[in-house]
Write a structure and sequence with these properties.
Elements lengths: L1 H29 L12 E8 L2 E10 L6 E5 L23 E5 L18 H14 L7 E6 L1 H13 L5 E5 L5 H12 L5 H12 L6 H16 L9 H8 L3 H7 L27 E6 L6 H10 L3 E6 L6 H4 L1 H16 L1
Parallel strand pairs: 3-4, 3-5, 5-6, 6-7, 7-8
Antiparallel strand pairs: 1-2, 2-4
Length: 339
């Protein structure tokens, strides 16, 4: 009996040491130096060509996983990668590599200061150039698009899904007309009538720079449907990203207000094309989102290999106001794809 106990204890200790060694090796591999020369925090400037001109866009890789690389497409349009910084608290410990990327006109990337570049099809080709430069392919390339990034991700996937491993659509409907209808028929009715009348009056006279406009939207819309906490407590990455919004890009494509849509994306609609997407897809919606969660649930039934994640306490920025559900669901999806 004594020898049996010693044998069992030895086996147990060996297994524990093996597991610890494997974890350490995995961690070392995840943070291993990938590029020679001066280390710059894994930042890579990617040269793209659009309309015959060359520009540089900013990317930054976090971690290393040859099989799982998630390229992040920020919202806005015109926001920055910064609000994705919360991903650093959840993805590295699971060994998932992700890549920050400021689209042209956003954040650190070049800004042509020309509204001709604020075009969905042009952005699709930009993403394809970034994919090639970062050596992303069907064996490792996950694309996650949030909000406007979700529009871009869907449009890109419909053209280039043969280059992809999986798609994540976060907090975005597949139809801007349906989004506008949801804003008018559902979200607007949740406003106090006096507040809504004041907002509509300012919009009617294009008085968007009036401090009262955001003064009303902030507590009655943004804190209820964008990020569900007092704006004074909004996380720093969100504040920094919103402060750097490219207003030319935003207004040209979205319109001057997040409450509805009136820019170049007004008629964008790919509902009928969703069955063409065949790669593994996760659709993430939130109960209190600016986007209709029922529409997003429906989207998951139209894509052939898709699942739906609802964040019951979340708004449009569910990666912050319903973090546990958001990231557990995202990581479960990745693990299932890898299996």
């Amino acid at each position: 009996m004594k020898y049996l106990l010693i044998s069992l204890l030895t086996t147990f200790l060996f297994a524990c040491n093996t597991q610890k060694t494997n974890q350490e090796n995995s961690l070392q591999s995840y943070f291993a130096t990938q590029d020679s020369g001066v280390q710059n925090g894994n930042i890579k400037w990617v040269e793209i060509e659009s309309f015959g001109k060359k520009f540089k866009v900013w990317t930054k890789r976090f971690g290393n996983n040859p099989k799982t690389k998630i390229l992040l497409l920020n919202g806005g349009p015109g926001g920055t990668h910064e609000y994705f910084e919360c991903f650093e608290n959840f993805l590295p410990k699971e060994g998932v590599e992700f890549i920050y990327y400021d689209q042209l006109g956003c954040g650190y990337s070049d800004n042509p200061n020309d509204t001709a570049y604020w075009d969905l099809d042009r952005f699709v080709e930009e993403v394809e150039q970034v994919r090639k430069a970062l050596n992303l392919d069907k064996n490792n390339f996950y694309l996650l698009g949030h909000s406007w990034g979700g529009i871009l991700a869907m449009q890109y996937t419909l053209k280039y899904q043969d280059n992809m491993k999986a798609l994540i659509i976060s907090n975005m409907m597949s139809s801007c007309p349906d989004y506008g209808k949801y804003a008018d028929e559902v979200l607007a009715k949740q406003f106090d009538k006096t507040v809504l009348d004041s907002i509509r009056a300012m919009e009617a006279r294009n008085d968007f720079s009036n401090p009262q406009y955001m003064g009303l939207l902030q507590p009655h819309f943004y804190e209820k449907h964008i990020l569900r906490m007092p704006s004074a407590n909004w996380p720093d990455p969100v504040v920094r990203s919103f402060a750097k919004m490219n207003q030319s890009l935003y207004v040209t494509m979205q319109g001057p207000s997040e409450f509805g849509i009136s820019g170049r994306l007004t008629n964008w609609d790919v509902k009928a094309q969703l069955p063409k997407i065949t790669i593994p897809t996760l659709v993430i919606g939130a109960q209190h989102d600016t986007m209709d969660p029922e529409h997003m649930k429906w989207m998951s039934t139209q894509v052939k290999n898709s699942s739906f994640l609802l964040c019951p306490n979340g708004g449009h920025m569910a990666m912050y106001d319903d973090q546990e559900i958001y990231f557990n669901g995202l990581l479960d999806f990745v693990k299932n794809v890898e299996k």
